[in-house]
Amino acid sequence: MNMTVDLSAGDTTLLAIDAGQTGIRARLQAPGSVARVFDHDAIRTDSALVPQLETVVAQVRAATGQSIDAVSAGISGFTAAECDPGELLRASASSGVREVFLAHDSVTSYLGALGGDLGVVVAAGTGVVTLAVGASTVARIDGWGNLIGDAGSGYWLGRAALDAVMRAHDGRGPQTALTSTALREFADLELAYLELQADPGRVRRIASYARWVTEHAQTDAVAASICAAAADELVLSAATGLRQVGEAARTRPVASRIGGVFASTAISARFDAGLRAIWPTVHIRAAAGTSLDGAAFLPELSPASALRRFVSWSGKPELTIAAAHRA
Length: 327
Description:
By secondary structure, this protein is of the alpha/beta class. It is 40% helix and 17% strand. The protein starts with 13 loop residues before the first strand and ends with a helix.
């Protein structure tokens, strides 16, 4: 599966961006050159997105001295109503940008994993979002943020770990090895909530505590139960998505999983087993690429794809990337 943009037409230089809640990664890809990767601070979904993206574009331009023809980005918290590609096009004109593709990071996660194929992709990192794509329909499951969603995500795991520690501290829940780990982070557990509330990076910080759970999953019953619950939530999302787009009726539906949460065998193995309990012949496919690859793939997306309407575009007619795909 080709996960790169064809840069042969017009000698196009493409800046692909994966803007997530843990960090922003950008990759500058120019004809005949080795791709260069840049890391930036996480996207702030509670602030305007376009200025944050424009800052990334400007910083890459300044670091490389390279004129950037096109920007293609997958963004956590993206909505077409609030994130206008035309605004980014205008803001980045001084960097040479003449074409912009923007999509929710669920779209780029999907494309990175399965390209143009049909199926479901669960992307579980700090947050989690599931996208299922059928022949003519698309279903997004969860991805509703840490306040009202993101079940099974890194944040969800970290929050569950803290909850278990405080329950054990109060005597409301069983004792757990998670407590000793938490005490290395917080000298006084009764002040932990105040410290976290005052931390502007608390979402990422709490998500980092997911490692407490996965590290203890083989030896601690509380941690094991949290991992099992996370995996079950992710199975539920994947199965719901497949059913909603009609892919559940296939003899061998396709699923893929990406993101740091699945680095835990306790979670990934239970996730796979959960899907196979529903569809014994399910094809759980290894991801072909990353979300950053998926962002770079946006310009190549076939007009026949049901995902096409979820990509916002703005550009000038003198620049085309894989124009045949958008004809």
